[in-house]
Description:
Elements: E1 3-8, H1 12-21, E2 27-34, H2 37-51, E3 54-59, H3 65-75, E4 79-82, H4 91-94, H5 98-105, H6 112-128, E5 135-137, H7 141-149, E6 157-158, H8 162-179, E7 191-194, H9 200-205, E8 217-220, E9 225-226, H10 244-257, E10 265-270, E11 278-284, E12 287-290, H11 298-310, E13 314-317, E14 323-325, H12 327-336, H13 349-360
Parallel strand pairs: 1-2, 1-4, 2-3, 4-5, 5-6
Antiparallel strand pairs: 7-8, 8-9, 10-11, 11-12, 13-14
Amino acid sequence: MSYRLLIIGLGDLGQRLAAEISKFAEIDELILAGRRIEFGVTFAELLAACSQIKVRFFELDAEQQDAVEQLLRDQRPDLIVQCASLFSPWYLRECQHPVAKVLRMAGFAAQIPAQLPPITTVMSAVREIDFPAPVVNCSYPDLTHPVLAQLDLAPTVGIGNVGMIQYRVQATLLQQSKLSGTEVKSDLPLVRVLAHHSQIRAAMSSIRPSDTSSCPKVFIGEGGQRADELVYAGLPLMSNRYLNALTTASGLPILQALLPNKPPLRISAPGPLGLPGGYPIKIINRLIELDLPQTINLETAIQDQWQSTQLDGIADVDKDGTITFTESTKALLRQVDPTLSEPLAPFSARERFNRMMSYLSTTS
């Protein structure tokens, strides 16, 4: 059978995913949606020529719920991949404005106003029309999913972060097997990873923190033997948007497994079941279940991920989804504007984003 897949948001990650998804044998139509009409139309034309499948672009503001609902009704995708954000997660790192420097110091929590609005709208549209397709979210799923879970709006699962760490560990194991003379990929052991977005930079840089309690947890084989040191065994990678290549590679198996009539998949992914951080999971018949080893229970795993959330600058998420920042993050946000440090309700994120951008738009 052939299926139809929708990608919302055509930034760097959305483009990379689209290019790879267009090669899926089971996809006969790829739908692209975003705000940049001229780029979107020509990019769709390029992908259609490269992949020899039907690729169409639709103009869409992912913050307009009625428009999202209409697109879903009209196109009926079998899978939705949500990549839209108000700015790239790399924007603040690349921006030279002095306010951007303060926001970077405040932690990734400072970016939540840019990441939350599109996925909130998309999930509101999905729930409003009871749309059956799974939703894979690429916008800070380690935090946006537990926030949206409080509103019964959690996406199916995310990609990136813990999945990237799992792929690096697997690459290290493969390299070690080659050195030992056994380089058959299928012979490598099962790798399961428990990790949070807050740990990704150190993991990609191969810099192990002095506080090992804040490290990702790696479980090898069915027995779950710990091998956390493998996270830092590879060469350092550049911390820039080129890492989206690894997000893409580690996310593609998840997208394939969520299409109809696919075999089960065991992998690690962020934000499953509306949980904070990232976990080992199974995808069976398009449904997600956790795949924790027997050496760690769910309560401990969730507590571990909430503790790691604080390293991003998040102190708590209330029962209505309101986000409270840590004291250190609040202190830095107050340097820009005291209101930026106040608790953030999910549906107030766009207003908070506009206020933040007003400072980034001033002459430095």
